[in-house]
Amino acid sequence: MNRDLYESPLNTRYASKEMSYLFSDNKKFTTWRKLWIALAESEKELGLNITDEQINEMKSNIDNIDYELAAKKEKEFRHDVMAHVHAFGTICPKAMPIIHLGATSCFVGDNTDVIIMREALILTKKKLINLINVLSEFCLKYKDIPTLGFTHFQPAQLTTVGKRASLWLQDLYMDYEQLEFCLSNIKLRGTKGTTGTQASYMNLFDNDSEKVKKLDKIVAKKLGFEESFYLTGQTYSRKLDSIVANMLSGIAQSLHKATNDIRILQSLKEIEEPFEKSQIGSSAMAYKRNPMRSERIASLARFIISNTSNMANTASVQWLERTLDDSANRRLSIPQGFLACDAILGIAINIFNGMVVNEKVIEKHVLEELPFMATENVIMECVKKGGNRQELHEEIRELSMLSGEQVKKFGKQNDLIERMANSNIISLSVEEINNVINPKKFVGRAPEQVTDFYYDIIKPLLEENKNMLGINVELNV
User: For residue 297, what is the enclosing H or E element?
Assistant: First the structure.
């Protein structure tokens, strides 16, 4: 690390080495060379005067990149692709005449972007699958634990810890569907020529349209793609970048919402993200346990969400067959979007691998509120014993007001159960009332909803992607 220069914290603090490598110079420029080789091989197969010796010379020098020479040439030419054509040709003198034959700069630039984007999507999918797996285990483990539901952050009907988490899980499943859409629809730019008309290749192949069409397909196959875009200008449509950015934003939205919930619940002391033995929560307040992992996800997630405007604006302002006002922006927005998303997925896996659920605190909060919520059930039970519904309603209303006053004004425990048991109108004992308001009776189908969702949707997804399961996540900070 050069301490005199700015370095992106996405590399130094947050993202994985695997994702960082995908956007490295070595990955980019070795991919350029693989593209030039695939082009030469395909042109040779279709009859152009290219020799095996030339192709083998290029293959043997894929990783032999003289970055100093490339930088010198780029300063001279003000053109990065031609700088690397010359750098490659210098160490491949026999192949020099046919490197980049018939191609425009976007042949290496755009096709490399698509190749790297697809690999980044696959790595993102792997992280997302592992997060879905870890979170689904959490949902199943805590599917039966009643907890206060909240609407408007006011106590509402009960749900369960696992059911609440399954809402986060369902959001991530929706993101998985969008990611699969991106993977199944990503296409290579292919060999389309300077303005997308393939005119240069028509010239090379003496206006043999079928050979030019085959060239596009052969190059795509050699690079692992079933097809390339039917139509391009000089570049592939930047709508692809926007679609991918929106998918990454979806993951960020899901994890931002989930970690906002975690931060609220940690403040209530109901659940806690992992906190290591020597971890410091505050430089001043030694007792603190801050949800810094969740906060980090929220912070990076906002960056990812905001990044979608870069892609959308770039897609919308391209002039005719192309302008170059996309280039500098995309050098930032595409890598950083993936690096940030990689980071939040890794942090989320870490959180759910070590999430602490404080069941006694949750139970305490439930019992503080449930007697008020369960009064209708108490009324119905008393009516079964011959009570008058209207008298019971008025009695419980008055007792609830008195008990609520004790809680709000004096900070005392909710004593509504005892008040009802001592009432002459309510013919139930403390034991009978507790049986009526057993929290498990107030969660509806929440536990079944969790298991149904898991076995119907999540388990098949995990089985389909079982080869991706089992990654270790280590946080740098």
Answer: helix 292-316
Do residues 124 and 167 both lie within one domain? yes
Is 398 in contact with 389 (CB distance < 8 Å)? no
Domain containing residue 25: 20-98
Whether 152 is catalytic is yes
Note the pLDDT tens digit of each residue in 189-234. Answer: 999 999 999 999 999 999 999 999 999 999 999 999 999 999 999 9
Residue 189 C-beta-side C-alpha neighbours within 13 Å: 35
CA angle 467, 28, 72 (to 5 degrees): 160
**Are 322 and 395 in the same domain?**
no
What DSSP string describes 96-136?
Answer: GGGTTTT--HHHHHHHHHHHHHHHHHHHHHHHHHHHHHHHH
Residue 12 falls within a domain, yes or no? Answer: no
CATH number of the domain within which 75 lies: 1.10.275.10
Cα–Cα separations (whole angstroms), residue 170 to 123, 130, 176, 180, 233: 20, 14, 10, 15, 39
Whether 29 is in a domain gets the answer yes
Shortest CA distance to 248 belongs to which of 292, 314, 300, 294? Answer: 300
Rounded distance, CA 429 to CA 375, Å? 14
Give CA separation, 411 vs 123, 164, 237, 407, 421, in Å: 52, 28, 63, 5, 22
- 284 within a domain of the structure (yes/no): no
Q: Is 242 a catalytic residue?
A: no
Range with the largest mean pLDDT of 1-15, 64-78, 391-405: 64-78
Q: Are 68 and 168 in the same domain? A: no
pTM score, two decimals?
0.91
Average pLDDT over residues 286-293: 71
Render pLDDT for 309-362 as a digit per residue (tens, 0 to 9).
Answer: 999 999 999 999 999 999 999 999 999 999 999 999 999 999 999 999 999 999
CA 407 to CA 430: how far, in whole Å?
19
Q: How many CA atoms lie within 13 A of 210 on its CB side?
A: 1
Distance of alpha carbon 4 from the chain centroid = 33
Q: Considering 60, 209, 282, 316, which one is annotated as catalytic?
A: 282
